[in-house]
Amino acid sequence: MEGPLLHTLEPSRLTVFNRVFAAVYACAVVALLCHRSSKLIHSTAATLPSISISLCMLTSDLLLAFMWAATQAFRMRPIHRKEFPDNLVRTVKESDFPALDVFICTSDPHKEPPMSVANTALSVMAYDYPAEKISVYVSDDGGSQLTLFAFMEAAKFATHWLPFCRKNNVVERSPEAYFASSNSWSSEMEAEKIKTMYDSMKIRVENVVERGKVGDEYITREESKAFLKWTHGSTRQSHPTIIQVLLENSKDKDISGLLMPNLIYVSREKSKTSPHHFKAGALNVLLRVSAAMTNAPIILTLDCDMYSNDPYTPLRVLCYLLDPQARSKLGYVQFPQCFKGINKTDTYACEFKRLFQIYSVGFDGLGGANHVGTGCFFNRRVFFGCPLMLLLPEIPELGPNHIVNKHIQSQPIMELSQKVASCNYENQTKWGYEMGFRYGSLVEDYFTGYRLQCEGWKSIFCNPERAAFLGDAPITLVDVLNQQKRWAVGLLEVVFSKFSLLTFGIKHMGLLMGLAYAQNGLWAIWSIPTTIYAFLPPLALLNGINVFPTVSEPWFVLYVFLFLGAYGQDILDFMLYNGTVQRWWNDQRIWMIKGLTCHLFGFTDFFLKSTGIFSTHGFNLTSKVVDDDDQKKRYEEGVFEFGVPSPMFVPLTTAAIINLVSFAWGLIMLVFRGSKLEGLFLQMFIAGFVVVNSWPIYAAMVLRSDEGRMPVRVTIISTFLACGLVVVASLTLRG
Ligand SMILES: O=c1ccn([C@@H]2O[C@H](COP(=O)(O)OP(=O)(O)O[C@H]3O[C@H](CO)[C@@H](O)[C@H](O)[C@H]3O)[C@@H](O)[C@H]2O)c(=O)[nH]1
Ligand SMILES: [Mn+2]
């Protein structure tokens, strides 16, 4: 190899074990399925109810088996990478570093506080990277003066913040995180001074947000001109394009006299009559506006809450993007989503250890990391056709090889930017279909990453010890479930598109990658086996019907092995990625809960929409503010937050009641009648397992009196439903 070592790759030590275990487990799964089907075919005293029960159990076992098989794709070749930025710095001159365009998306000043978006921007503007090579583009889909105001303030503050960070070698480059951290500040006096400055900016911005308008006392006459672009009829859904250059690297300097990065505010044109494609649409506008203004070969995309936690991140990325061997086919370098503010036991499993870490490592070894929407460095070329054939956009100036040789505020550049941000610009172009971020799914990140990999682009998962970015995770159950419902619907949109994972995916990327994508994409189908297992075995138990083999049958051992094997391997994976047993427990609980709530509802919504009964799905933003102190406290203590009467809580609560009743019934039978439990042992075990998992639900129904308890309405409806189901079961199941 020529040149110094920039990065290495090491296969996981678990690989051999994973493969052997997969082979053994596969045999057990096949045996189980054969057993189930042969019982169905050969049963002598078959009645309609018994056949229906067997069919349901067979269906759920088939789906579980499929999901298990798909999950194995991630376990076949997990790899771990390391980068050596020090070697890079030694060999590549700073002046040869490529330029970097950063895209930050925000869309609602009330759910996504402008001050936190500004912090995100400041944290990347302060990267340990030549400032004049960085351009930060902020897309404001909320079209809000409040956000623009926050960025005007941030631009001024940045002229102090950047030199401060450089001089003191600050690691936390989001000011909010820096001032909140307990690290001793490098230079007390100076730090105090800059903190005062930050606090006063924060107060101004928060005042403005609270009042909902930018008062004249906050801005100079010069600045007020920018706000004139908001006309009388401007609303969030309908307004002209507003592009405001807040800092320009050719003329703006920080207080130490060094050049500043570019900072550009973009609120694309919106009209009620043209689709805007949510975040994917916003990103495509930024792709074009940035092409017109700076056209950097590297692009970093960030959600508004994901601030940089490590100033050296771009250097890590260059270890891959400047590697002559990998460069031509490398589409993007993805960092995991990491979160701050998650409680000790991660009550709602918001860490997403599997999706953002374990599976990404698996994907990386197979053919490339999946894209997760934020914290991703793209090679700009990736948005313009496959590696071998450049797809030129309708205006050559937007192409990836075009070199911009004018100032960003010069008239032709500003005119072009305005034009490409208008809401009808994309009509009759390839944007969103063959170029840029892809439309057609609410999970534009998953879909875009998938399509790019199908085109032949490679990608890399970069998971340094210190998290590169940190974001906010939802802290109430209903927020979590709503977010997951959006994901479930978005994923199904991909599954049922012409780019379906199992056909198109396998054809273009091979069996394992296709399966891996399918495992993600088909998340919502977990809801089918979960629902069946949550209701059928306990209802059968209440009626003395056994749906599993008895303890003395040899098949019983098979069930025990399948259960222990799956859970055992899962917990092993979890622990090896720095998990704790408590977090794992909560994680498996949330997995069950999701099956009965967001996945079930996402599934239903999707099909109602496909049949035209429902109108289109929207992108319900995940809230990033918690105003309620009690709520925050409950979260810290790991107490479940129900509170709102969401319909999603109904099936969940119903299942919890039915399992409790049937488990209690089983115990009573055992104690008073000494009834033979042998046949019903597995059903008792499953019901008991559900009951233990459902503890927070029972507590929320009867023991708690705080605002986060289960709404009485949900409890009543669920109790009625549970009674109804028990009656119906007793009338039908026994045949
Ligand atoms: O019309 C829209 C809707 C959303 N956003 C932005 O999209 C980002 C993600 O939205 P959020 O509410 O935080 O959704 P999450 O579910 O937390 O986000 C995950 O899922 C999304 C896909 O559903 C991905 O886009 C994200 O990158 C990924 O982190 C935020 O910065 C929003 O401002 C827009 O710019 N325009
Ligand atoms: Mn988010």
From TrEMBL:
GO MF annotation: an example: cellulose synthase (UDP-forming) activity
InterPro entries: Cellulose_synth (IPR005150), Nucleotide-diphossugar_trans (IPR029044)
Keywords tagged on the record: Cell wall biogenesis/degradation, Glycosyltransferase, Golgi apparatus, Membrane, Transferase, Transmembrane, Transmembrane helix
A GO term from the CC aspect: Golgi membrane
Active-site residues, Swiss-Prot/TrEMBL: D141, D445
Chain positions recorded as UDP-alpha-D-glucose binding sites: K111, E112, D141
Residue intervals passing through the bilayer: 16-34, 46-70, 487-505, 517-536, 556-578, 590-608, 648-672, 679-698, 710-733
Subcellular location: Golgi apparatus membrane
GO BP, sorted A to Z: cell wall organization; cellulose biosynthetic process
Bilayer topology: Multi-pass membrane protein
Binding site for Mn(2+): K279, D303
Short name of any one Pfam family annotated for the protein: Cellulose_synt
Main subcellular location of this protein, as a coarse class: Golgi
Superkingdom of source: Eukaryota
Protein purpose: Thought to be a Golgi-localized beta-glycan synthase that polymerize the backbones of noncellulosic polysaccharides (hemicelluloses) of plant cell wall.
Family: Belongs to the glycosyltransferase 2 family. Plant cellulose synthase-like G subfamily.
Family matches, as PANTHER family: X-BOX TRANSCRIPTION FACTOR-RELATED
Protein name according to UniProt: Glycosyltransferase 2-like domain-containing protein
Species the sequence originates in: Carpinus fangiana
